[in-house]
Design a protein that fits this description.
about 425 residues, alpha+beta, Antithrombin, Chain I, domain 2, 10-stranded mixed β-sheet, 5-stranded mixed β-sheet
Length: about 425
Amino acid sequence: MKSRSAMLPRLAVSFLMLSSVLPVLGSTTSSPENSSVTPAGSPPRPPSPLGDLTWTLGLRLYRAVRSEPSSVNAVFSPLLVASSLGALGGGSAGTTAGQVQDLLKTPVSSKAKAQVGGLLSAALKSFTDANGTAFHLHTSSAMFSKQAPPVSKSFVKDSQAKFRLQHQPMGKGDAKADLKQLRAWAKAGLGGLDGAPVEGEIKANAGALILASALRFKGLWEKEFSQESTDRRTFLGVKYTKVMMMHRAGLYRFHEDMENMVQVLEAPLLGNKASLVLLLPFHVENLDRVEKLLNPEQLSKWLEKTSRTSVSISLPRANISSTLSLQKPLSALGLTDAWDQKVADFSGVSDKSKGKLHLGGVFHWASLELAAEAGKGTVEEENIQKPKLFYADHPFIIFVRDSATGALLLMGAVDHLEGEPLHDEL
């Protein structure tokens, strides 16, 4: 996988910025100096990331994943990972359970566990209910067991009811057969899409439990990016490539952090059931600097400071996908006993598990599509006034959050986009 190398400064910035505005300003109306507007009936803000375990886990896991030099375009679902770990925690005991609880930042009481399960279950239901209207979504989560003792029926029932985690026995074949089974499962979970390949082999010994999750997401805007306002531009990522860029002027929640040199944009999907949050550095750079700023407190401040503003958006039309093995990141975050068959305690998964069960892997497939189309519905007219410019022609960070619960469904980095290579002709 490509390294996250530092990128060259952009040449002729003034010319590029000017040329990016021209396609979108033709549809705007002249207006007063102030571009920030707050019309009556503005949709309510989703709950804050503060205190939400999907944001807390997601940001910690994101930093651990991105610490790897080979991490490019890492996309994953904090909600699905948290739900799978929540189910696993319900089947564990002793220090194994304690480490899962620490990872999810949940107290040890049974009441607190029930509350966490309820919150994750409500978030999963909220996204499921909005599927097909605000976005197109395929998700699946499973726990595979390799030549393991019989799994408790009550554990399977509880995991499926609360966390939508299925149980699937794994065949008795070798590592290649295990990988083939997992990839076939992931393809079905992604709605028929082939996921990015798993790096290396899957080594599932007898007694291994493997958590797997797959997510495919395509948001439907309130107002579409029309084909007439789509053209080929340069994306200044790890490598410079020519890609299709979508342009549109509209009203969005927007904030510019002048001190940290970051633009924050929240774009609602149809019906305001979910939204995309984009973090874009002012200048062309890799994402290391911005990633160091990421924590629930900072994100909450940024989101609270956004206001309904006229913004001209330019976004790449792209598919971003990744396949992640999360064993190393989760271990770095404190989940250590689960991998060791001698000390792992999964007595809630099977009453015959002592010394026989361990966590053999956590794999995550994700696909995010940025497309032009909107959903079908009636939306209010927009009065565009001297729009700000949000020109995402260089690496940015993306979040997808639920408007009702505030849960974080998806997050990731866009470092590179496939396209025609840009050759230096100097």
